[in-house]
Description:
single chain, mainly alpha, two-stranded antiparallel sheet
Amino acid sequence: MRHSSRSGDTDFDAAESRRSYRQRVRTERKSNKLQEFMVSIVGIVWAVAIVMVAQLGLRSFGFGSESVAIRHLVAALGCGAASEVGLAPAHRGDPGYWSRLDPANDGVSCKSAALPSRVIVHRG
């Protein structure tokens, strides 16, 4: 009879251990979900803040519209980018002018970008 009592205790301990494990897993999952939710909320707040600051910054360029200001920022990547967005060559004070893209310091950036970027040669 004692043997069956011990076996019953072992079964009870195993069942209790499984319940305890399931409860820990549930608690951990809830904690992970809460952390994920908080991270997503923080991410959304940061995104909204970045957009608001960007809009204020774009308006401060003074180019009249946000689309021109965005093209001006893209032109900062280089003469190829400035040419792609239609801002090359650019004169000092105009959208697309960046002093680092004006090595001659003559007030015109990306002069060579005015040339066609691709020359197609037809051979007959």
